[in-house]
Specification:
eight-stranded mixed sheet, binds ligand SAJ, six-stranded parallel sheet
């Protein structure tokens, strides 16, 4: 039996996937409300394919509880909070979960950490925490790091099809955990050591962050001399060895906007390109705010209350707002002038910011200018509703005359 600890964005789909592929799974979360919701037959967030997967897993016998189980395999996927100012990740929840596991687990148990941690965390914090409790790692407890790699919006597909990395002290233990993941994962599963696994996870997200920063920098260069960045990227990408990403209003989420800072924090005099890239991405909401003022001025619009931001989530077709560029922009706006920008997102049904709308038509009716912050399918399908509005499209998805871009 596998006890999955932490039933959030990663733990829940992982537990459901294993259960629906013949593994006996019990999911544990200290949030009793969340456990009750799952036990009442409902999932806790929106994600393509998750409801069907949930039904299959429940049929296969998955259970949800707040108690830690006595078993030989634990998978920990609890959040790793990130401090915006120190740019450091705090492994406190992971350590707390490991300590709780140690209270119940038999000798020889394997603890797999899926949560993203900064490179070196296992040796610096987790291993000492285990040994402080009187356990010898490698003998009484086997530690494994199996970083998750799935992308919100396509998690269920990617869980099955992505390649995976398993970092273990002991190769035999690594192979055993590889077999467990192979119950559902059709990708290649590489077994390596823990530090390498920690580093690969952060490096993958850093690669993407640096490449998004490059696209954002190109957008700024092109804006400066009135060139079409999308046309330029499209043509460059026809070269067999060029693959530029897309500029945008900023980088959100709890991964690409966070993980690369771990490398900057640990190697300040070495990680120069990464540092500049992160600053470029973090600066995009401010750049965009200036662009909004510029377009307002060009169109004789003086009242910021007549401008609406479409999209609050950090990217399209998910309900996750963590580090979202829209929230960053709203924060920045409050520093610069009286707040007033209107906001709407079809995925956010509760009130989270001022001047928020819950109906697309009503939102559009109350603004003269719409800024497309997030390319939800809804607005692609209903772009006709934007006719006669001033449009600033941060994703180049609105195919109409007179649309402004970043
Ligand atoms: N973005 C751009 N331009 C692009 C692509 C993305 O501005 O061309 C922005 C998005 O709008 C979003 C942010 O970047 O605000 C991040 O979105 P994303 O879709 O690139 O990635 P995440 O954060 O949802 O998920 C990433 C993935 N990592 C990589 O692709 C290397 C995923 O596989 C990881 O599992 C996840 O981080 C994680 O949990 O670490």
């Amino acid at each position: 039996m596998v006890n999955v600890i932490g039933l959030g964005y990663i733990g829940l789909p992982t537990a459901l996937m294993m259960a629906s592929h013949g593994v006996e799974v019990i999911g544990t979360d200290y949030n009793t409300e969340l456990v009750e919701t799952l036990n009442s037959g409902k999932t806790t967030f929106k994600e393509k394919g998750i409801d069907d997967l949930f039904t299959k897993a429940v049929k296969a016998g998955i259970q949800f509880t707040s108690k830690y189980q006595v078993t030989d395999t634990y998978i920990i996927s609890v959040p790793t909070p990130y401090d915006k100012f120190s740019k450091k990740v705090d492994a406190c929840y992971v350590i707390a979960a490991v300590k709780d596991v140690l209270k119940v687990c038999p000798k020889g148990a394997v603890i797999v950490i899926e949560s993203t941690v900064s490179p070196g965390t296992m040796d610096k914090y987790i291993r000492p925490a285990v040994e402080k409790e009187g356990f010898v790692t490698g003998r009484d407890i086997n530690l494994v790091h199996a970083p998750e790699r799935i992308i919100p919006g396509n998690m269920v597909f990617e869980l099955v099809h992505n390649n995976r990395t398993i970092g273990a002290d002991d190769h035999t233990v690594g192979e055993k955990i590889k077999d467990l993941y192979a119950s559902f994962c059709k990708g290649e599963i590489v077994v390596t050591d823990i530090k390498t696994a920690e580093m690969t996870k952060v490096v993958e997200n850093t690669f993407r962050a640096v490449n998004i920063a490059f696209a954002n920098e190109l957008a700024k260069i092109c804006r400066h001399d009135d060139m079409d960045v999308y046309e330029i990227i499209k043509i460059c990408n026809m070269h067999p060895r060029v693959n530029i990403l897309q500029p945008g209003p900023g980088v959100g989420g709890h991964c690409i906007s966070v993980d690369p800072w771990f490398l900057v924090g640990d190697y300040p005099s070495l990680a120069k390109v990464i540092d500049e890239s992160m600053k470029t991405n973090d600066g995009m909401p401010d750049f965009l705010l200036n662009r909004i003022y510029e377009i307002m001025k060009d169109n004789g619009l003086t009242d910021v209350k007549r401008v609406g931001l479409y999209g609050l989530t950090y990217k399209e077709n998910v309900d996750d707002m963590r580090e979202s560029p829209t929230l960053q922009l709203l924060e920045s706006q409050e520093r610069h002038l009286a707040a007033g920008l209107k906001v709407y997102d079809p995925f956010i049904t509760e009130d989270v910011v001022n001047h928020q709308y819950h109906d697309l038509d009503e939102f559009i009716e109350n603004v003269d200018m719409v800024v497309i912050m997030v390319k939800h399918n809804e607005i692609i399908e209903k772009m006709n509703k934007l006719k006669n509005k001033i449009i600033l499209d941060c994703h180049n998805i609105i195919k109409m005359d007179g649309v402004y871009h970043i």
